[in-house]
Specification:
3 domains; twelve-stranded mixed beta sheet; five-stranded mixed beta sheet; Immunoglobulin-like; single chain; alpha+beta; 14 helices; 610 residues
């Protein structure tokens, strides 16, 4: 016989928040589908099982309960509720739309099912944080956020702010336990002479000498009821959590939408692709991945259309480059520029900004994300915001990703509102406020420097087209010419002989002594080594100004995404930083420039006093 649940509304007590106030605390500008996807996926990711190499699963299914399902809700799950509740009328209809949100390969809602139970430091409290407590902090290091506010997104998606929760956990004994409870967060109300917060539970009422507790159905009782309401069950060794959002607010879209399930589903699909791509992109380690599914009725929707977008592909490459650098390696993609973001006089490393210049097709579905930097957490790699920079002007499309270093993840997390959709340094104090503020300013500076066209040099501009055209003639010419080198004598350039030519810099100078094409041992890149002589009498920074030849012999400036300095060192072998070639006066150095095969480039060197 199917169990009948008890109704337990929460009376007002000292410090309690009304249910409608709880929802307002979330505070977000995100549309309902995007908020639902971001917050529930974040909770699922934080709950993943870390042992082993299994990939967690996150699944959204949009469907309808038939008449028998609605009757089960009416008679067994919600046999009692407050007078005038909107859910009561909805349960009289012959069917009801629902959203089933499930995760597997996750731990489930572990820990005690009572709010007054004592736990040891480090023991899980997932159940009470999600079911009983609003805004409970995510204790897990480098986790995504807060369980209590994350669940609020699911309640906001329901017309009746009501969700059914089914979870399966593994106990310390090694046995598995299923848990089932329904929860609502409504406006406050009065009933039978008492005031109630609007937070309500339907489960098993347990009374003792202290207070009345709302406990979930357990074991077979939980399974029997949940199995008749949910589509996605549990395997023998599976743990995880499923939510059933009742009567979704499919009209909760922006004004440009006509509402309805189809529009909501499409908005959710867009939200999955734009917010969860760090988890779904290909060719990555299992510990970074999450299997994501979106099902409309019985039809699984395609979530891979974004792979046709050049912006998406470049964002993925930017993320891979940052991962490599933050793991102690180097970016393996020569078309990605990785900029270390530092703070303070000691140049404390805050994070890394990766930038690229995608070549947009005629109908790139992510074109609106060109000229944005995707801000994301470090370890969780959950997207906070695609930050736009409307005052940064540049002709070419560009795309970027920024991640703080893992040691500062918690600092940036403190700058997030409960909806995790921006970094607001005004919420911080002291050096943490300065760190986030300056870090974001350095990101802006990095973007500006990347997209800013190099200043034209009238003394060398006339050589640019000659050098570029010579490079087009073939690899025997090296594929690159330094402006001001001995271009008037192509035979000299072909042999890489040392000649003299001066590249004019603003009040400073550097001479190109010679160049040579390096052996072609790369399927993607060509390389040319330049030998330079600094003629200034003071220490300077050598700055390369590089461009790519286009039709008509003209030069398109390149900010380092395709043509870049790969290596540089002084004549005695002392290595120099490629992005900061600072040298003493009257110094000879060699600079290796890399660029794609078959591309003609123009390269000018100038100096800046330091």
């Amino acid at each position: 016989m199917t169990s009948t649940l008890d109704w337990m509304p929460k009376p007002f007590g000292p410090g309690d928040i009304a249910g409608d106030g709880t929802q307002k605390l979330l505070g977000t500008s995100l549309a309902a589908p995007e908020l639902l996807v971001r917050e529930t996926a974040q909770n699922s990711w934080d709950a993943r099982v870390r042992e082993g190499a299994s990939v967690p699963e996150y699944r959204l299914q949009f469907r309808a309960l038939d008449e028998s399902g609605v009757r089960l809700l009416r008679e067994s799950v919600f046999p009692q509720m407050r007078p005038g509740a909107s859910l009561r009328a909805a349960l009289e209809r012959p069917s009801m739309e629902v959203i089933e949100i499930s995760d597997r390969g996750t731990t489930g809602l572990r820990g005690p099912t009572r709010n007054d139970a004592l736990v040891r430091p480090g023991d899980p409290t997932d159940y009470r944080d999600f079911i009983l407590t609003v805004g409970a902090k995510q204790d897990q290091k480098n986790g995504g956020g807060t369980y209590g506010f994350g669940k609020t997104a699911a309640f906001r998606a329901s017309r009746h702010s009501t969700v059914i929760v089914w979870s399966r956990v593994r106990l310390n004994s090694g046995e598995y336990q299923e848990r089932f409870i329904a929860v609502a967060i409504n406006e406050s109300f009065q009933y039978a002479g008492k005031r109630y917060t609007g937070q309500q539970w339907w489960g098993r009422k347990v009374e003792d000498s202290k207070l009345t507790q709302a406990e979930p159905l357990l074991g077979n009782e939980a399974h029997e009821l949940a199995d008749r309401l949910f589509c996605r069950g549990f395997g023998d060794d599976e743990t995880g959590t499923s939510l059933l959002v009742l009567d979704p607010r499919y009209d909760a879209l922006d004004e440009s939408s006509d509402g309805g399930r189809a529009a909501f589903v499409e908005a959710a699909r867009e939200a999955v692709m734009r917010n969860l791509w760090p988890k779904t992109m290909g060719a990555q380690e299992s510990q970074r991945a999450m299997r994501v599914m979106l099902v409309d009725g019985d039809r699984e929707l395609d979530l891979h259309g974004m792979q046709e977008s050049r912006v998406f592909r470049d964002k993925c490459e930017c993320l891979r480059a940052i991962r490599s650098v933050q793991a102690g390696g180097a970016s393996r993609n020569p078309l990605i520029r990785v900029v270390p973001i530092t703070w303070g006089r000691g140049r404390k490393l805050v994070g890394h900004l990766a930038l690229s210049k995608p070549v947009l097709g005629p109908s790139d579905m992510w074109e609106d994300l060109a000229r944005t930097v995707t801000l994301m957490r470090s370890e969780a790699e959950l997207i906070v915001e695609d930050k736009e920079y409307p005052h940064v002007h540049g002709g070419d499309a560009w795309a970027g990703v920024f991640k703080p270093v893992s040691q500062l993840d918690d600092v940036f997390a403190k700058a997030e509102p409960p909806s995790h959709d921006k970094w607001d340094f005004s919420a911080l104090e002291g050096h943490e406020k300065s760190l986030v503020k300056v870090g974001l300013e350095r990101v802006l500076e990095g973007v500006r420097e990347y997209v800013r066209p190099p200043a034209a040099d009238p003394d060398v501009e006339g050589h640019s087209s000659t050098g570029a055209i010579a490079a087009v003639l073939g690899k025997s010419l090296g594929g690159a010419i330094a402006s001001g080198a001995e271009e008037d004598n192509p035979s000299t350039a072909r042999k890489g002989r040392r000649g003299k030519a001066k590249a004019q810099g603003r009040g400073s100078g550097v001479e190109v002594l010679g160049w040579e094409l390096l052996p072609d041992d790369d399927s993607v890149l060509s390389r040319t080594r330049f030998t330079l002589q600094v003629v200034d009498e003071k220490p300077v920074r050598v700055v390369p100004v590089m461009g790519i030849a286009i039709d008509g012999g003209q030069i398109r400036p390149d900010g380092g995404s395709e043509v870049f300095v790969e290596n540089c060192e002084m004549a005695d072998g002392t290595p120099l930083e490629a992005d900061c070639m600072e040298v003493p006066s009257s110094t000879e150095l060699s600079v290796t420039v890399a660029y794609p095969h078959g591309v003609a480039i123009d390269c000018t060197f100038r100096t800046v006093e330091i």
